[in-house]
UniProtKB/TrEMBL annotation:
Residues 1-28 form the signal peptide. PANTHER family: OS01G0137200 PROTEIN (PTHR33138:SF81), OS01G0690200 PROTEIN (PTHR33138). It holds the Pfam family GUB_WAK_bind. It is a single-pass membrane protein. This is Wall-associated receptor kinase galacturonan-binding domain-containing protein. It is found in: Membrane. Residues 32-98 form the Wall-associated receptor kinase galacturonan-binding domain. It comes from Aegilops tauschii subsp. strangulata (Goatgrass). Its main location: membrane. Keywords: Signal. One of its GO terms (molecular function) is polysaccharide binding.
Amino acid sequence: MSPTCSRLLLLLCISLSCIAAIKPGAQAQEGCLPERCGNLTISSPFGLVSVLEENRCAQLGFQVHCTNGTPYLWYYEPGFGLQILNMFYSNGSLLVADIHKLGDFESSGCHVPVTNTSSKIGHPFSISNLNQNIIFYNCTKAPPLETVRRAGLAETVCRNNTFVRTGGHYSERDGGYALEGCNAIFLPVLAASGEANASDYEGLISNGFLLTWRQPPAGSGELTLSSFFFKGVDYPGLYIT
């Protein structure tokens, strides 16, 4: 058997073991009791989890990890967590920030983000169309000045032919954003004024973007393998490249 097949078989066995370990009635509970993390109240369908303790009341996909009073959508690797800034239970949405991307701009090894934020988002969440695109470019050479002006490019703090610009609504990914000789990465932001300023990209990332979620069916005890995985990150913590 090839190494790839063996690895996939191992991941499948571990995933099925995780599913089998959950009691059939676990998903049918009313949910976790409300708990505080920082200044936010975490309540159903969300629930706080700990790496040291198992929490069976939290709905799959709605686990929240509280780190030093800061809530994160739970991922096994700390560097993958989306920080929760606010939660709007009445309309099924929450404001989150891909805060770890700010580390990309630190002086040591400064670079623009290399992965789209959407690679972290999967069922039961969706990126709201109320968000706006910001696009980062890593170019082999500086674009012509006419292109810089036309596209509204701003140079990033990393310099080295890296740029950023704003775009339309997040769903508009085919808006002529490609630039010759440049790799493009898309991030969603929720601009308070309704229009993002590209040069304030670090502030925009910090202020977050809007996610929406689908409410889990009441009393549903059915588990499927697909519900056990986020995009790019195996749940509950096996990373697949």
